[in-house]
Design a protein that fits this description.
The complex is a heterodimer of chains A (315) and B (164).
Chain A: H1 6-12, E1 24-25, E2 39-42, E3 45-57, E4 60-72, E5 78-82, E6 87-93, E7 96-102, H2 104-113, E8 123-127, E9 133-138, E10 142-144, H3 145-150, H4 156-162, H5 164-183, E11 196-199, E12 205-207, E13 212-213, H6 222-237, H7 248-251, H8 279-286, H9 299-311
Parallel strand pairs in A: 1-2
Antiparallel strand pairs in A: 2-3, 3-4, 4-5, 5-9, 6-7, 7-13, 8-9, 10-11, 11-12
Helix pairs in contact in A: 5-6, 5-9, 8-9
Chain B: E1 5-10, H1 14-27, E2 36-42, H2 54-81, E3 89-94, H3 113-123, E4 128-132, H4 138-144, H5 147-154, E5 159-163
Parallel strand pairs in B: 1-2, 1-4, 2-3, 4-5
Classes of the chains: A alpha+beta (315), B alpha/beta (164).
């Protein structure tokens, strides 16, 4: 029978309402049963469970029951605990379906690899009583890059000439961080614009969430490159531009080759919408278009082209 | 360029079997010629991270390697059946350095099968590389890459036969 968390909570968190006191959890396998007021015990440390994390997508809250927002009772810090959840599922990318696997082992390994590197979220892995590797993550003190851009209220041209050059410089640094992983045989696995944060203190970018993995044999980093391309399109365009969002008059100028190779309704030839975008930058976007003759094979190639594009911007 | 040594990139798929059949057809009219054919399969064990534990990963690795070795036997039979002399045919299974089952000293360390095939070709002076092509969509090539496309782009000093 599980032990009550009453004693430890009254000692280390006396402000916690006793009516919500739960149990001390040493085996996290049944993560659905761990709820508010329970205390997860790992290697002598205690984490008060506050809530399940959730992802907000398409206007809906999608709870992630294996990801717990906690407070460390010994230090008072807030952490995110990721519990072991093995799953494989089909992920739809445009017209293709890719098999994706969630790997706690991979994320634990990358956390070790990137320790002390501010370009990545930080954390450590502790085993629970039955050996489940629980990842204890520091909360990134920052805001999602896409949300920062979404909040801007200015014309695209002003954005492009004032804010964008710095954003591109930071994004190149973020690409270099991914390249650094690739050089060590690791992939991020889930590069999306909501997985890149802007740190409050430094303004630099920080990647989060490394637990997805795929089995791509010939181009193991293909999905990471695709994700970087999507973020690039977003930051250049100050948002996503689809065929549906265009005024009828502008639609005639757009061809299939101007659209994303994976998402046929997403415009990547942004120079057609914003003519002041330099050709050097637009040509990078076009490498992700249906009309592309050749594709990026490595992050290094992308970085080299982006660095040239960055140099061509007015500052 | 050594036109007598032919290397076939093989992965047990239908398109690589087509590459075997085509090569056999090309060589069989003159089986006494001094040409040799090597059928090379590059081991690519599934990523360890896809499995919850080592035991299930090893089982999957063994299953994949066994299937490849059986396919190599089939490839050899196809070439023999087409009239190529036994001495002219070699099969090679190049184990991955990442494989938990690895026994041989030589192993494949890279991530690209295409580059590994070209490495073999260069090391052993093959003048021709034969590769099957599945006919992937542009989206598939963008995301997953293509062995035949990469061989075509990266090959130097040899002929490439692409059997589509």
């Amino acid at each position: 029978m599980a032990q009550s968390a009453r004693e430890i909570l009254s000692r280390l968190a006396p402000d916690f309402p006793m009516r919500h006191v739960g149990e001390i959890i040493t085996d996290t396998t049944q993560f659905m049963r761990i709820s508010y007021g329970d205390v997860i015990q790992l290697a002598g440390r205690h984490f008060l469970m506050l809530r399940d994390e959730a992802e907000r997508r398409f206007g809906l809250e999608d709870p992630k029951f294996w990801v717990k927002r906690c407070r460390c009772l010994e230090t008072g810090t807030r952490n995110i605990l990721k519990l072991v959840f093995h799953e494989s599922f089909p992920m739809t990318i445009g017209s293709m379906v890719v098999s994706c696997t969630r790997s706690p082992r991979k994320e634990a390994r990358i956390l070790d690899l990137v320790r002390g590197d501010p370009r990545f979220m930080q954390g450590e892995t502790l085993p629970d009583a039955v050996g489940n590797p629980v990842r204890i993550l520091d909360i990134v003190a920052g805001k999602r890059l896409d949300e920062k851009i979404e909040d801007l209220e200015m014309p695209h041209e002003d954005y492009f000439h004032t804010l964008f050059p710095t954003i591109l410089t930071r994004f190149i640094e973020a690409c270099e961080a991914i390249h650094w992983l690739h050089e060590r045989g690791e992939k991020h696995g889930d590069i999306r614009r909501d997985h890149l944060y802007v740190c409050y203190d430094t303004g630099r970018y920080c990647w989060i969430d490394f637990d997805y993995t795929f089995d791509f044999q010939e181009k193991p980093f293909g999905l990471d490159l695709f994700g970087l391309g999507n973020i690039l399109q977003y930051i250049v365009g100050m948002g996503v531009h689809t065929l549906q969002s265009l005024p009828a008059g502008e639609l005639d100028a757009i061809t299939r080759d101007d659209c994303s190779i994976m998402f046929g309704n997403r415009i990547v030839n942004l120079k057609k919408l914003f003519p002041y975008i330099p050709e050097t930058l637009n040509s990078v976007l076009m490498r992700f278009s249906l009309g592309a003759e050749i594709f990026y094979d490595t992050t290094e190639e992308l970085i080299a082209d982006l660095t040239r594009a960055s140099a061509s911007l007015d500052r | 360029m050594n036109t007598d040594k032919i290397l076939i990139a093989f992965d047990g798929s239908e398109n690589s079997l087509r590459a075997i059949s085509y090569t056999a057809a090309m060589l069989s009219p003159n089986p006494r010629a001094q040409r040799t054919v090597t059928v090379a399969a590059i081991d690519r064990p599934p990523d360890r991270d896809l499995f919850p534990d080592d035991a299930s990963w090893k089982t999957a690795c063994a299953k994949r390697a066994d299937a490849m070795r059986k396919a190599l036997v089939e490839a050899r039979s196809l070439l023999l059946g087409a009239g190529l002399p036994e001495t002219a045919i070699t099969t090679r299974f190049v184990e991955s350095c990442r494989s938990p089952l690895r026994e041989s000293l030589e192993c494949s360390i890279g991530t690209s099968i295409a580059l590994e095939i070209l490495r073999l070709a260069e090391e052993d002076d093959f003048g021709t590389v034969v590769v099957g092509r599945r006919g992937v969509t542009r989206q598939e090539e963008f995301l997953f890459g293509s062995v035949s496309t990469k061989i075509i782009h990266a090959a130097k000093g040899l002929a490439v036969w692409v059997v589509a």
